[in-house]
Every structure is written in structure tokens, then in C-alpha cells.
Fold each of these.
Amino acid sequence: MTQFLPPNLLALFAPRDPIPYLPPLEKLPHEKHHNQPYSGIAPYIREFEDPRDAPPPTRAETREERMERKRREKIERRQQEVESELKMWDPHNDPNAQGDAFKTLFVARVNYDTTESKLRREFEVYGPIKRIYMVYNKHSSKPRGYAFIEYEHERDMHSAYKHADGKKIDGRRVLVDVERGRTVKGWRPRRLGNSQIGCEPGLLPVPLHKCRDIHCRV
């Protein structure tokens, strides 16, 4: 097809000039000749360090050992933090913990977009609400995903505790429980080492040893 192109376009397909040959600056490895013969390393052995004077070899830490050490250090560091936080944790003197603990319902797994008015509408079906306290991050002012709802009557809190667990609000199923910080002796939150908080709260009984109503069983 190129034979039908005009001369100005045929010039674009013309081969380039060959690369000019330049002699190498030095001989190739197979062309070099060694005048001196190869010798052994026996004359230089005396320059080496005596193995008897050498320090003992140091054993390096393997990757698995390093990961295990870091994991152990992290656990120990967290235990120290928990112990120091546990000494300062006093739910009975918490300025944010107001109202009657036996009328307060703990609501977890709340959607971060859920507002206080939305929670009030959803939980007022169980009885009149006195106050709602939603927890926010102190630094970013973003919601933490849980709240405390104080009812006017204790029986309404028990009704909400019994029926509201697993209720879907704004696309998420909430989890409810009683306020155990001020009602259960020796209880502490998960961040302070409570290993039993992961069980299903809807199956836990209301703390009866402090309950004012002898019939408040769920």
C-alpha cells in the first residue's frame, strides 16, 4: 500500500541511517589476559580475628517472637490503664448520671443519625419519659451510639426493657438494658474489664437485690 503514497509521505517511512560503529573503550572480559596467576587466601588467614577471642553471637528476635512481645506489652499496658481508670470510676458520683437509676433504661447500638426527639417518639409508647441523655464524644462532639432514658414510673422502664430490645430505629436494631452502674454492686463496663457484658442483655434479669418492686421480674 505504501507505493501509492505521495513522495512527501513516503519520506516518513524511509529507514534511518545505521548506527555508526564505535570501538569499545576497553577489552571485553573474554579478551583480557591476566599476567599474574591466582593465589589462595592462606597468606591472609593471620589477618582474621581469632575465633577464641570473638564475642559470643547474639541471637536476633524472630518475627513471631517480636509479635508475641508486642502483644504481651500491649496487654500489660492496657491492664495498667484499666486499673488506673477503675480507681477513678465511680458511677454514684458521676455528674452526668442524674435521676433515679431504677427508672433509667440503657439503649445501645443507636444509629449515629438518630436524634433525641426520634428516641423519645419510639420509647414514649411504653410510658411518659422524664429525660433522655445521649452520650457524645467530648472531643469531636459526635454521638457515641448509646443513650440513657429515664421514665416517670419504674413499671414503664420494665415494660420498655421487656419489649424494646431488638427494636429497629433508623435502620438499626437497638439493644436495651437496665442501668447497671448504679444498681448492680460490683458491676463495671466492658472497657474496664467486664467480660460478661457481651451476653444478650434482653435475657438478663432486672437487679432484684435493690429493686423496690417485689414483682419487677422480666
Amino acid sequence: MSTTSSEDSSQPPPSVAIAGRLRYILSSVLLVPVDGLKPDTPLSSVGVDPMSAFLLAGLAVKAGLPLSYADVIGTATFGKLEALVQQRIEAADADVWMEEHYNSHPFAPPESSS
């Protein structure tokens, strides 16, 4: 069976995939709605504390996101945390990251029904 353009278009660009995965992990750990995590959302306002930062960093690494405890604790907003992860993945090669991690992790965001 050949790959069609509709199959190729089902995979989002790396920046969207990274933001979605990070948003999904934070939402799951902090028990906040996914749409409540905007770029300007202060991490402290959604409940990030030392214990949750440890859990977030561990789950992010398990999901293929280069993120440490110090990153979570030392970053003020969701957008800055997202940018940090994006920058590290771009430095490592975003296409390789997508191939290795997009569909092969335990924290895949739910499929869009649209």
C-alpha cells in the first residue's frame, strides 16, 4: 500500500506536535484543561510546584521531550517552557524527533475528531 498525501498530512508540523504533547502532559499531571494552558499562562498559577515539576520532567523525558526538573522550576510560563523544548529539538533535528517520537510514546494527545 502506498502512502497518500492525506496520510502524510495527518502528522502535524513538529512545533505543533511538541506543543501538543507538552500541553497534554502538563494538563494530565496538573489536572487542568488543555485549553487552559496558553503561552502566557504562569506555571505557578496552574499548580507547578517542586513535586509536580519532578513528575512533569520525568514524563516529558519518557515522551521524548528534552526537559529537566531545573527547566520546569526555572521557567515562568508555559510558552517559555514550550520554546525551550522546541529550541532543543530543533538543535537536535526536528524531523528525526518526529520520526522517532511522534507516534511512539505513552502520552499521545487524543486524536482530533475534526
